[in-house]
Amino acid sequence: MSEANEEDFVMAFQDSCDKPALLLIHGFPLSSQMWEPQLEDLADFVRVVAPDLRGYGGSDSVPGPYSITLLADDCADLLGHLNVATPFVVCGLSMGGYIALEFYRRYPEQVAGLILASTRAGADSVEGQAGRDKAAELAKTEGATAVSAGMLPKMLAEHNFETDDELVDYVKEIMSTASLNGVVGALAAMRDRIDSTPMLGDIDVPVLIIHGADDQLIPVSEAEAMHNAIPDSELVIIPDAGHLPNLEQPDLFNDAVIDFLEELLEEEEEA
Ligand code: MLT
């Protein structure tokens, strides 16, 4: 784990080596620790950079307001600070996917390809926004862990939640590192994020969409809708996986990512 001193907070991150880069952006309310199987397996192919977003993991617990734009800029600042060669591949899971789409919107010239895992392109509905406010209130009155405790059973496929105690404990442990600032800030950022659907048809880099077949938080139909709207996209549905296919089925997830990266690198060499 390393630390980069940005202007107003210390951001922690994991970084594997000096090769074409892959940025891994974690979901809510997790940290770069969720990418452990990817940091282990993908580092042979690419330089993996996995930041802890502000308020999460080893990064400082900075007070809000947060926005998806700010979180995307934090990632851009970190990669700039590390002198990562551009363009690189940006991968985000769930909230990380919202940030990946925003990253593309803001810095398209830096992006060689996108991996959108367990995510959706649309904005929150009015009911969804009210749910974010309720969750933020709960975090303020009962602590950040009250929010994660409510989410935990939905993070994995039902079967995995019921049978894989080790994985459940691992996810719980990661969630326990989320700070109150991080949880409240990210809830507001997600509540106010813009609808990325109108941008999908204009994405002109290859996109890999990965989704767990049994995701209880974001239905597979959201992944299918993105696949239908993004011209150069591929959809991989991971069986026996819920919202965290990278942890529930790491080999299948990593194989899909490696195939995508190999194709992309081949295309770049030919160009
Ligand atoms: C996540 O896993 O990042 C969140 O569930 C996304 C969301 O709540 O919209």
Please provide a written account of the structure:
By secondary structure, the protein is α/β, with parallel strands linked by helices. It has a single domain (2-270), classed as Rossmann fold. Helices cover 46% and strands 17% of the residues. It contains 11 helices and 8 strands. An 8-stranded mixed β-sheet has the order 1-2-4-3-5-6-7-8, with helices on both faces. β5, α3 (95-106) and β6 (111-117) form a beta-alpha-beta unit. The longest helix is centred in the last third of the chain and has 21 residues, at 250-270. The chain is globular, with a radius of gyration of 17 Å. The model has no long low-confidence stretch (mean pLDDT 95). Bound molecules: D-malate. D-malate binds next to loops.
Task: Compile the SSE list and pairings.
Elements: E1 2-5, E2 10-15, E3 21-25, H1 36-42, E4 47-51, H2 68-81, E5 88-93, H3 95-106, E6 111-117, H4 126-142, H5 144-155, H6 158-163, H7 165-175, H8 180-191, E7 207-212, H9 220-229, E8 233-238, H10 245-248, H11 250-270
Parallel strand pairs: 3-4, 3-5, 5-6, 6-7, 7-8
Antiparallel strand pairs: 1-2, 2-4
Helix pairs in contact: 1-11, 2-3, 4-5, 4-8, 5-7
The chain binds D-malate.
Looking at this protein, list some descriptive labels:
Rossmann fold, binds D-malate, 271 residues
Order of helices and strands: EEEHEHEHEHHHHHEHEHH
Percentage of residues in DSSP E strands? 15-25%
Q: Outline, from the CA principal axes? A: globular
Secondary-structure arrangement, i.e. CATH architecture? 3-Layer(aba) Sandwich
Strands of the biggest beta sheet: in what spatial order? 1-2-4-3-5-6-7-8
Molecules bound to protein: D-malate
